[in-house]
Design goal:
5-stranded parallel β-sheet, alpha/beta, 7 helices, Rossmann fold
């Protein structure tokens, strides 16, 4: 199992799309959003493990980073630096989202087998980072050229692997 966790607004859907020819990739499938409504961490992990198939990559919702320390497999954590993240938000969201950023980061620090990737580094070196992620996962990298906005193209919230 391979996983992408993220702080939101950091290019995680783009990264998932860049990896989609290298490994079957799901971006925030419906069951990953269902995890946030489950009370116990044990039941959250059971839900993730029941749905996350072997040899697939799942980009999880940023709202479920609390499962990262409890699930198996290699993980990527794509994040914006704190101030960059806060500056990207609407003024009314900043305090609450700042706390969420800290929560997400803290959970990934506790997790094992995590490759941390800063957003601006990724955005400036997309193909190189996609290859680094494949090397981290131990899979062959198959380049994907993307010249469109992946969220506008509807690649998020799909229950089937991405097809570009």
């Amino acid at each position: 199992m391979y996983s992408i966790f993220h702080t939101s607004l950091c290019g995680s859907t783009l990264l998932a799309c860049l990896l989609s020819k290298s490994v079957p990739t799901l971006t925030e499938p419906s069951w990953s959003h269902d995890i946030r409504f489950v009370d116990s961490i044990e039941d959250k992990v059971k839900l993730a493990e029941a749905n996350h198939k072997e040899n697939t990559l799942v980009k999880y919702s940023s709202l479920v980073c609390d499962i990262a320390p409890h699930i198996e497999g290699k993980k990527v954590f794509l994040y914006r630096e704190y101030q960059d993240h806060i500056n990207k938000l609407q003024p009314t969201d900043k305090e609450q989202e700042g706390l969420f950023w800290c929560f997400r980061f803290a959970n990934l620090i506790k997790a094992k087998e995590v490759l941390f990737i800063e957003c601006n580094y990724f955005l400036n070196n997309q193909q190189q980072v996609a290859k680094e992620v494949c090397d981290w996962f131990g899979i062959n990298y198959v380049p994907v050229e993307i010249d469109f906005h992946v969220k506008d193209a509807g690649y998020n919230h799909k229950d089937n692997p991405i097809e570009i």
